[in-house]
Write a structure and sequence with these properties.
This protein has 246 residues and is an alpha/beta fold. Helices cover 33% and strands 17% of the residues.
Length: 246
């Protein structure tokens, strides 16, 4: 990862402004934490007072780097606005299951329900760490188009319970529309179950380039309207604030 510099970050802010976005959050994976520079983010804020710039990080379950990532998050907790929690590794420690197309090999010839059960067990573990504010791409396990035979809400129940009990949020991620599954993260049934449990939502495009920033947000807005989602939340220094969509 490139170290944070004005030259690296400014195009993202410019892209947000061009798309009419008032907020942007930088959420690199924790394995790249050495490149994150909070002082550079602060200088970026000073230079762009019209855009709310948040400092975040995505903490995943990488078997090699997650311990160091958690230590870094704990050390820098006060300077972070929020921490995303995610699962990118299943049984194989040498390959993220969501790589496209290579990761699809991990699903070939296996019981898909068991993979879902294993995945959501790991999501529950991340939710229970006490150092995440929001779960990103909650049902990432569907990325290659594999569907559980059993009710996905029942499989995800423990993870949803942890999210609700700890007052965490779940991300609406438009990245799913760019992936083989061609569907928003999370599934409509999970969204309905989360709403029943009073779980809050955030929005994300999971942009890996500033050209993807805010991708399909118009489509997301229409979907949230259909689903009856009337507000989303934002985080500042880990404090959650609801924003009305009306």
């Amino acid at each position: 990862m490139q170290p944070y510099t004005r030259e690296l970050l400014q195009p993202w802010v410019d892209s947000a402004r061009a798309r009419g976005l008032s907020d942007i959050a930088f959420t690199d994976h924790d394995r790249y934490h050495e490149g994150i520079d909070f002082d550079e983010i602060e200088r970026l804020r000073e230079a762009n007072p019209d855009v709310k710039i948040r400092a975040g990080v995505e903490l995943d379950n990488d078997p090699e780097t997650s311990a160091a990532g958690r230590a870094w998050v704990e050390k820098n907790w006060e300077r972070l606005d929020f921490v995303l929690g995610s699962v990118h590794y299943l049984e194989r420690s040498d390959q993220m299951f969501d790589t496209v197309p290579e990761g699809a090999e991990q699903f070939r010839g296996r019981d898909i329900d068991q993979i879902y059960i294993d995945y959501f067990r790991r999501v529950a573990e991340i939710a229970a760490t006490g150092i995440v504010d929001c779960l990103s791409h909650f049902d990432l396990v569907k990325i290659h188009g594999h569907r559980a035979r059993h009710n996905v809400v029942e499989i995800a129940e423990k993870a949803l319970a942890f999210v609700a009990q700890r007052g965490l949020a779940i991300e609406f991620s438009t990245a799913g529309w760019r992936k083989p599954v061609g569907e928003l993260y999370p599934d409509d049934r999970i969204i309905a179950a989360a709403m029943e449990r009073g779980i809050s939502f955030t929005t994300a495009s999971d942009a890996h380039s500033h050209a993807q920033l805010g991708d399909a947000y118009d489509r997301l807005a229409e979907k949230m309207k259909v689903l009856g989602v009337r507000e989303v939340c934002v985080f500042e220094r880990h404090r959650r604030r609801a924003v009305s969509l009306d």
